[in-house]
Write a structure and sequence with these properties.
The structure is a single chain. The longest helix is centred in the N-terminal third of the chain and has 46 residues. Among the domains are: 105 residues, Cupredoxins -  blue copper proteins (Immunoglobulin-like), CATH 2.60.40.420; 246 residues, no CATH class; 142 residues, no CATH class; 174 residues, no CATH class; 65 residues, no CATH class. The chain is of the alpha/beta class. A hairpin with a 6-residue loop joins β32 and β33. The chain starts with 5 loop residues before the first strand and ends in a 29-residue tail after the last strand. The strands form 14 sheets. The chain has an eight-stranded parallel β-barrel with strand order 12-13-16-22-23-24-27-28, surrounded by four helices.
Length: 1272
């Protein structure tokens, strides 16, 4: 049976969670409930998740209706919900009348991917993806043979780089036309179209069980795109972005510098065309400052024409100088960025520089002040521009170092037109002129509009900022790592700002979504969010279950979440190559998916908690360096194995498995991928087969990865065996099967690095069922690597030696050892685990433990169907388990429930016990189940298996024994519940210790929820039909009301027929065992300090009358009635014999409860006739025995009222420090009377406190000892 998954999101005031990721699956229900800060307010929840059957519109919000489960409006239980059936990103916000938005956030619903002729679901964690550079696939009719490599290598998803017509640079991501299928994929006489691509993609989905995704590139287009020349407004040009004019001037100056350096004109200044050393770099700096900077005078774009401004100012003064400006000179930047185009705010100038008079002399003097200040401001602007230029030359030199000097750079060689000093930042579609002539073009808009800014990326920049917009100096400071083949696109704020571009990209998106199952957002962190939001909305309109992946370089999980939540990104690309050693590689596996082994079973209805983005964990991405160059060829297989054991989507790029020893450049690579041929010769470069590279190993690993995800192996444990060996366990929580993969990494070449020859043994908990695979990379005689001219070829001299499902050759079983009755461990000694080796075991619990876990799950399945998988019926069911727990619980009273669920330390100590103390942590608040459940609730939600409570459970059976033994020693039904728990725990104790916290929690949750169900059935209809809040409040009745070892109440009349009795454990005689109410936990819970008159009768209505515990309420009323003395009910009851009558209000609370009882309880007036056993029939008598003096309750009430009207005055018995060490002597005199004129009760003196405000001063230093806080 499938349990519906419900997630609850609590709404609280000012919960702005836009940067928090909430991931949900289709089929889930999301409930919004009110948190404490919003209770009592008329909250309105809005969402743009559409009604069923309607299309999604990001800006169309609707109000969600509230549901009331209890049938009445109750803020604690009401909720509004969404049935999630559509993938994507959806927004919610909430507020109330007058304040529309108090908080909000996003939810991301994952797509459902389907493959095969039967459209079966491909879970996200099953994905194994391989990237192809599309331009290396050749003609479309050759694609199946080349793509078959992915199928035969075990991948189930293909990522194509863009299939559109490429730009001049031939970069896979510089597209000349986003709408046309690249004609290069058609042979002569052919004309393949998008429909043909779509047909191939569908064939792969249905026949090969493979899905296909491709990139979408929204941020730029190829510089040679025809449409950008026809629509230059789609880019950032000098007309629509005049703030880029100074940067363009600098760019042109650097281009002319390139030409001069290439021609050798700076050789005599130490700057040759071939830049090879530090002195050449210093020469670049010198030439820049001496020749370039003075020539272009960039500061003039930010300065004021001083003479003109002063002349305008003088004219204003001569006209009269009354203004409303502020006294602070303001310079206004010229929006067109012309030289000396800045102006002065004349109002501020006139307010700042005021002549002494209107005489010509004073006006001239004032103009001189302004001139001086403007020259100072111009100098400041020049200093700012100089700082920009300093950064610019630093970036230029850094670029030169990387491109020409660095070992890891491209080593471009001499400066030339083809390989300029630095990449140009702007297009220049005209013949070169002199720099002076080019500066004249700045006055020709028809040409300026074609100087378009290139795209790129900025190291460490804010990804939410568009670096090409006004306010950014990235282009001027040369901080852009520029892609000189691509123009940055200018979308503006919406379609109205650039209609052609939005429409063009919309068509591009529709084509992509029509033919592919998903998209990779290229350059996602630099794509404007609102653009990507819009386009993905278009794409999901075409393909509702669109799989969206992206790679982000924000450096912050919080910033990542902004993109993930707003765009609905399904998976974020993560790379194993980012790990600097095997420790880090293992940590990434643990970080990117799965629960810890032995994780707690989560309820199907639970809080919605933040999550990290789903990962697509790749051994290497297609645009990063080749691992063989950075590590060693032998590491390819073990690192792939580590990646494949991650509980998330995994993948690689074509060429990795074939051991291609260099990066396959997305720009320069033009060779073709080899085709698949299972019989390919080992020396072949145009064809590959199972023996090529590590393909055979990767196929087995991919198959294993998909099997683990499909079969629910969702728990992960990473063990760093030593510096190079990583063991990763995937565990199935229902069958408790595990797969352990041991990888010996080879980050360094074994030929040059000394690895440890002794491999430490491993201890595998459980029984090894089989060796799934053994594989290692080995050398073979196939010649040394030689780069092929036509095909992308790998290192033929290496292959994988692999065996599957066989008796192990690499390991030696050293037999089974027992670490106690529940720990069976198999020791493994590795024989040939050389660097580059991988071995995978399938492990199950030993047969006895497996059976016991199955039996446990069988008994737990009476509480939830989620335990049915892996359950095994018990052949010899113990007597204690033969009845359902609910049947045993139904026999318990609410007093029994107090013992089962609650009882604090002091209550339990009366029976010689106490609450359980967890070593190294603290004692539980209750000895009953609630003490554990409160702690486990926090542990369970976060799977905090390192908590001291979990450690205590793994280390021994002490807590397990405590839970059931305190119940078995009780009489009757409680003992039976204890026996049921004991029988369940007998199974629990014999399963592996790492599983005990999980199953201990499962047993306790089942017992606790069953107990609560039985508890509420014993209460009133108001509680049974009430909200969750009401029921939680009603538990206070069970918490505070119980029966201790010693009777806390004096005996009530034996004439009452339904008074509970028991045999005293102390005297062996029959005694009453009425429920009493603790005044407070834990300090007023046991002994003579348990019951207090005032506290009892303030709480009695809520704890006993409302909950339907009428008999217990009656007994408490009558017991206190029996202790009436001086017309008062005791403050401290002290079992009646140690009572103190020092409060004036308890009797009135008692009377109020009697009135409530008569009104609330059916035939409640009968209580007035109930016999009361008087302990003190007169004020000064000794306590009477039960039944000696009895009278009806109405007579006792009459006496209390009569005594007040007559006036009460007495001195407490045993007055002095024996009963109150702080009270002054005068305070022991108690006076109470009724004002005959008003009926008000009054009394007391300044030294005693007779009402609930009874705090007595205790401090000599504060001089309040013996002085009440208030004498009321």
């Amino acid at each position: 049976m499938h349990l519906k998954q419900i997630r609850v999101l609590m709404l609280n005031d000012n919960d702005n969670l836009e940067r928090t990721l909430f991931r949900l699956e289709q089929g889930f229900e999301l409930q919004f409930r009110l948190g404490p800060s919003l209770q009592g307010r008329r909250v309105i929840v809005h969402t743009n998740y559409p009604l069923e059957g309607q299309r999604f519109n990001r800006d169309n919000f609707r109000v969600l209706a509230w549901n009331y489960p209890s049938g009445r409006e109750d803020d604690s239980d009401k909720f509004c919900s969404l049935e999630l059936k559509m993938a994507g990103s959806y927004q919610y916000y909430f507020g109330y009348a007058g304040i529309e938005r108090l908080g909000g956030g996003y939810i991301v619903v994952d797509p459902v991917l389907r493959v095969g002729p039967d459209n079966h679901v491909l879970p996200l964690d099953c994905i194994t993806i391989q990237t192809y550079l599309s331009k290396c696939l050749g003609p479309l009719d050759d694609w199946p043979d080349r793509l078959k490599v992915a199928k035969e290598s075990g991948y189930n998803m293909i990522h194509f780089t863009p299939l559109q017509t490429l730009g001049e640079s031939r970069s896979c991501y510089s597209l000349a036309d986003q709408l046309t299928f690249n004609p290069e994929f058609s042979k002569e006489g052919q004309n393949w179209s998008w429909e043909d691509v779509g047909a191939l993609v569908e064939k792969l989905r249905t026949e090969w069980n493979m899905l296909c995704i491709t990139d979408v590139v929204y941020n730029h287009t190829a510089a040679n795109s025809v449409w950008i020349k026809e629509h230059p407004e789609c880019g950032y040009n000098l007309v629509n972005s005049p703030h880029l004019r100074p940067a363009w001037v600098l760019d042109r100056a650097l281009w002319h510098l390139t030409l001069k350096v290439a021609e050798g004109r700076y050789k005599d200044k130490g700057l040759p065309a071939e830049i090879t050393n530090e002195s050449h770099l210093n020469a670049v700096r010198s030439v820049f400052w001496e020749d370039v900077v003075p020539q272009i005078k960039l500061w003039e774009f930010f300065q004021v024409k001083v003479e003109l401004a002063v002349e305008q100012f003088k004219m204003q003064l001569q006209k009269g100088f009354k203004t409303g400006g502020k006294k602070e000179l303001k310079i206004i930047q010229d929006p067109q960025y012309r030289r000396y185009g800045n102006t002065v705010d004349m109002d501020s100038a006139l307010e700042t520089f005021v002549p002494h008079s209107s005489s010509p002399h004073h006006i001239e003097e004032c103009c001189a002040w302004l001139k001086q200040r403007l020259n100072e401001l111009n100098d400041e602007q020049k200093r700012v521009v100089t700082q920009h230029q300093e950064q610019a030359i630093n970036c230029v030199v850094g670029n030169v170092v990387y491109e020409r000097l660095a070992d890891h750079g491209p080593k471009l060689g001499p400066v030339s037109r083809k390989n300029p000093l630095v990449t140009r930042y702007f297009t220049y579609p005209y013949e070169d002129m002199t720099l002076e002539e080019e500066m004249q073009v700045l006055d020709q808009p028809d040409k300026m509009q074609h100087f378009l800014a290139h795209n790129g990326w900025v190291m460490g920049d804010d990804p939410l900022r568009n670096f090409a917009e006004p306010g950014s100096n990235v282009y001027l400071r040369r901080e852009l790592v520029c892609w000189g083949d691509s123009v940055k696109l200018r979308f503006g704020n919406g379609p109205e700002d650039c209609p052609y571009l939005w429409e063009h990209m919309k068509k591009y998106t529709e084509i992509t979504a029509k033919h592919f199952h998903g998209v990779r957002l290229d350059n996602c962190h630099s794509t404007p969010l609102h653009v990507a939001e819009f386009m993905l909305g278009v794409a999901r309109g075409v393909c509702p279950n669109l799989y969206v992946v992206a790679e982000l370089f924000t450096g912050s999980e919080e910033l990542d979440n902004i993109f993930v939540t707003r765009l609905g990104i399904t998976s974020l690309i993560r790379e194993a190559m980012s790990a600097h050693d095997s420790h880090e590689e293992g940590r990434l596996v643990y970080r990117y998916g799965g629960e810890p082994v032995g994780a707690f079973v989560q309820p199907s209805l639970r809080p919605l908690v933040p999550s990290i983005a789903h990962a697509m964990f790749l051994d290497v991405t297609h645009d990063n360096e080749c691992p063989i160059q950075l590590r060693s060829v032998l590491d390819s297989l073990p690192s792939s194995a580590i990646v494949s054991m991650a509980c998330c989507a995994t993948g690689s790029t074509r060429g990795y498995d074939e051991l291609v020893p260099h990066q396959i450049s997305v720009v320069k690579e033009e060779r073709l991928y080899p085709k698949w041929n299972p019989a390919a010769a080992s020396s072949s470069t145009g064809e590959i087969g199972p023996q090529t590279g590590i393909i055979a190993g990767k196929r087995a690993l991919n198959k294993l990865h998909q099997e683990l995800a499909a079969q629910g192996f969702v728990q992960v444990y990473v063990d760093q065996v030593d510096a190079d060996i990583v063991a990763i366990t995937r565990h199935c929580p229902s069958t408790h099967q595990s797969v352990v993969t041991v990888s010996r990494t080879a980050f360094w070449n074994p030929k040059t690095h000394q690895y440890e020859s002794n491999v430490p043994p491993m201890f595998i908990p459980g029984q090894i069922e089989e060796i799934i695979l053994e594989a290692r990379t080995v050398e073979r005689n196939a010649g040394n690597y030689k780069k092929d001219e036509k095909y992308i070829n790998g290192m033929l001299e290496y292959t994988v030696e692999i065996k599957e499902h066989i008796p192990s050759m690499l390991v030696k079983h050293s037999g089974v050892t027992s670490k106690g009755r529940s720990e069976f461990v198999q020791e493994i000694q590795f024989q040939k685990l050389t660097p580059g080796s991988v071995i995978s075991f399938r492990v199950s619990l030993d047969p006895k433990a497996q059976k016991l876990v199955g039996v446990l799950r069988y008994y737990l399945s009476q509480f939830s169907p989620k335990y049915k998988r892996g359950s095994v019926p018990d052949e010899n069911s113990p007597p204690a388990l033969q009845k359902p727990l609910a049947q045993l619980m139904s026999k318990l009273t609410l007093a029994d429930m107090n013992i089962l669920l609650f009882r604090c330390e002091t209550e339990e100590q009366e029976d010689g016990g106490g609450s359980y103390s967890i070593p190294g942590w603290e004692s539980l608040k209750y000895a009953g189940l609630q003490g554990l459940m409160s702690v486990l609730a926090n542990i369970r939600s976060s799977n905090d298996l390192g908590h001291p409570l979990c450690a205590n459970l793994r280390e021994g059976d002490w807590l397990i024994d405590f839970v059931f033994k305190r119940l078995i020693n009780r009489e009757g039904p409680l003992s039976q519940v204890g026996q049921w728990l004991g029988a369940m725990f007998d199974y629990l104790k014999h399963i592996p210790r790492y599983l005990i916290p999980c199953y201990f929690d499962a047993i306790l949750v089942s017992t606790y929820t069953t107990a609560l169900d039985s508890t509420f059935k014993l209460m009133s209809g108001f509680v049974q039909n009430g909200s969750t809040f009401v029921r939680h409040l009603a538990l206070g009745s069970v918490q505070m009301c119980g029966v201790g070892r010693f009777p806390a109440l004096p005996p009530i009349s034996e004439k009452l027929s339904d008074v509970p009795f028991r045999i005293s454990a102390i005297t062996g005689k029959k005694e009453q065992c009425c429920v009493s109410m603790a005044a407070g936990l834990p300090h007023f819970s046991a002994g003579i300090f348990r019951c207090w008159g005032r506290d009892t009768f303030i709480a009695l209505r809520g704890l006993l009358l409302i909950t339907g515990r009428h008999a217990e309420a009656r007994n408490i009323i009558l017991a206190f009635a029996g202790t009436l003395r001086h017309g008062l009910i005791p403050n401290l009851l002290g079992e009646g014999r140690c009572a103190r009558y020092n409060c004036r209000d308890a009797v009135w609370w008692w009377l109020q409860c009697i009135q409530d009882y008569t009104n609330h309880v059916p035939e409640g007036q009968q209580i007035l006739r109930c016999p009361v056993t008087r302990m003190y029939p007169t004020d000064d008598c000794e306590p009477c025995g039960p039944g000696e003096v009895e009278q009806p309750l109405h007579d006792v009430i009459q006496e209390a009222l009569q005594r007040h009207l007559e006036g009460i005055s007495f001195r407490e018995r045993n007055a002095g420090p024996k009963i109150d060490m702080h009270m002054r002597d005068e305070g022991f005199t108690v006076v109470a009377k009724v004002d005959p004129a008003t009926g008000f009760v009054m009394g007391g003196n300044r030294f005693n406190c007779g009402t609930w405000m009874d705090k007595m001063g205790e401090s000599d230093r504060a001089r309040n000892k013996g002085m009440p806080a208030t004498p009321r």
